[in-house]
Amino acid sequence: MRITSVDVELIQVPARVPEFRWREGLPGSDGPTTGAWLVIRTDGGVTGFGFCHSGIILNDIVERRLRKELVGADPLAREFLWNRLWELDRIEYFPVYINGVVDVALWDIAGKAAGMPVHQLLGSFRDAIPAYASTVTFGGISEYLDVADQCLELGFRAIKLHAWGDVRADARLSRALREHVGDDIPLMYDGSAGFDLADAIYLGDALADAGYLWYEEPMRESSVTAYKRLGERVAVPLLVGEVAAGAHMNTADFIATGAATAVRTGWTLRGGITGSMRIAHLADSYLLRAEVHAGSLPNTHLCMAISNTTYYEALIYSNPVRRPDEVDANGLVHAIDRPGIGWEFDAELAARLGIHD
């Protein structure tokens, strides 16, 4: 089987309603955007899809760099093509998500060619996983507590905060939420890279006192040494390696510092499915967890295939809370039983994003 064409289909992605933010000064939703489907066709009649919210950028890179590299290649040679894109990255410095879009489309082809869901092709570990409610930034402590109550009533088994980016206010919120839900509900905190080392230590101490399960991205991940020093000073477990470039290579440096209790993986920022599995296996070698970042169909497959992950991340962006469609009334996300990634079989997704074959 050979790749016969590589095309980008630009589409208009509507704004998420209501709009939201991650913390003070950092936008979350951007309004309507130009997204794109990467469409890779083969002479075997199998077509693979990958989706990207930055459609104009993807289209430019495909036109200038990727089409001539991919057309004529064996789509099942994913390791070769994954490494080839890393070679090209030396010249182009691709946005971190580009490798992931291509890799997901190739795994979509592989699953369809095998007649198997991608998680089975990877080697399934489970057929369902609990979801945690990952909040956006809400207005005040009382609203957060109300949102938490709604999430628990909807079946969620854990809650993660995206708060305001003010260490003292966030510390008060973190303690208030723990007191409100009790000791048995796992809680997490995501700083969205809002702090320097001193403030990260202050908040980390508060999270440790409140028994939080993990402390995620309090600082920009440009300095592995800063995270090493943070890990030496706080008792709360650190979840690291979400957005730093370099996939498993960068993750290895975080692990080598001894600071990581768990690492991030996931198709969008860690090199697609291929890169994500490399990270998961690397972490497993050190008895660390590899937690999948964000929801989506590709990440659902990863959650089912990675033994050392514990939750699916489900975004909660509105009040009243709306439970995402993939999460059932018991707070579980179930394995996809369709060949490939399954884009075409999700009628709501297909209609919203305009996918067709």
Automatic annotation (TrEMBL):
Entries under InterPro entries matching the protein: Enolase-like_C_sf, Enolase-like_N, Enolase_C-like, Mandelate_racemase_C, Mandelate_racemase_N_dom, RHMD-like
Keywords per UniProt: Magnesium, Metal-binding
Cofactor: Mg(2+)
Domain Mandelate racemase/muconate lactonizing enzyme C-terminal: 141-237
UniProt entry tagged with the keyword Amino-acid biosynthesis: no
Highest rank taxon of the organism: Bacteria
Protein's UniProt name: Mandelate racemase family protein
Species annotation: Microbacterium deminutum
